[in-house]
Amino acid sequence: MFTKEKMDLKRIAAITNAGAISGSERPVTRLMKEALEGYADEFDYDNQGSLICVKHGNGKGPRVMLSSHTDEIGFIVNKIEPSGILRIMSPSGWWTHTLLGQEVLIHTEEKGDVLGLIGTHFPDEDTDKGRVRKMSELYVDTGVRGRENVEALGIQKGDTVTLNVEFKEMADPDVMMAKAWDDRVGVNIITDVLKELKGVDHDCELFVCGTVQEEVGYRGGKTCGYRVHPDISITVDVAKCDDFPGCDPEGHKLQGGVVIRHYDSKVLGNQELSRFIQKAGRDLGYPVDIIVQNYGGGEAHEIHRLFDGVVTICLSVPSLYILSPRALVHKDRYVAMVNTIVEVIKRLTMEDLERFKASRR
After folding, report:
1. What is the pLDDT of residues 147-183, one digit of tens each?
2. CA-based, 20 to 30 A from 88: which of 12, 96, 234, 350?
3. What's the total number of domains in the chain?
4. Is 29 within 8 Å of 49 (Cβ atoms)?
5. Do 195 and 136 belong to one domain?
6. DSSP class of residue 40?
7. Who contacts 92 (Cβ-Cβ below 8 Å, separation ≥6)?
8. By C-alpha distance, which of 332, 358, 353 is closest to 176?
9. Degrees (nearest 5) of the Cα angle 26, 211, 289?
10. Residue 13, helix vs strand vs coil
11. Residues linked to residue 312 through DSSP beta bridges, in sequence order
12. Each residue of 282-340: pLDDT tens digit?
């Protein structure tokens, strides 16, 4: 069984700290591949850069795609002003009021990362001080003045920019703080699932996938799905967490067990597969919660529509303060998810797949 003591916090920190927005995911996929050397039977990629880690079964079971997206929300340099100030755009959107004064890293091609700070004009110059700044009003200040001096740092238009936030354990060490839990928590979980399956016999042909470009339209899930051609898709992503003043008292809290997303605005999950996962989790002693919501979505949206349809479900880890510079995840959720998915892979058979498909006929 996987436990909190077995969590590789150094690897988790490296994957969450890595700067990798959509289209620039190599820092994360390389870390994931490095962690799984000796655990995956082989590695493959789709042509967008999604990493596919293959674990062969005994040849009797379904093809299972277990995936999480490797990209984070961030920025791209779209202008270097004569003063040396960098203007940025976000491919996927931000709550701009969470960004002022935040440290960022500009990732240059040849000279490494350059530290910057997100700024805007002085509030007293604004006639409406309470309004939220537009992205176009924000900029990155490296402290260097003059376009030529900034370019001498290796910075150019098109460079990616990510928040400079370090992974930390909180005062309660079971609570982990990091940027990009969306969806580096999933990336770390599925990495540990594959590691836990080393030497374990199972029917499934398993494909553990770190997908790309989810934050700009679920693109890597689609191309990776075409490459894998799965019978079953299980995605692991984050969920809204109700653990703050004034929240829904019956909402999902930081601490807990397994959470399964039945419905969102993009996917109607296969409920028979959900029941299979629920039983596996409860047999291991974990509480299981269900998400039913009319908003949000993830790469399961594209995967479940491939070919003649893929049996699909999304598992979700409640993360507090998600889509802000720093968010929280609880180790109990992490451990419960790893052990439950391992148990699911060990149990799945071709007969189960046929039952999942027949449940909608």
Report:
1. 999 999 999 999 999 999 999 999 999 999 999 999 9
2. 12
3. 2
4. yes
5. no
6. S
7. 21, 22, 73, 74, 215, 216
8. 332
9. 130
10. helix
11. 233
12. 999 999 999 999 988 899 999 999 999 999 999 999 999 998 999 999 999 999 999 99
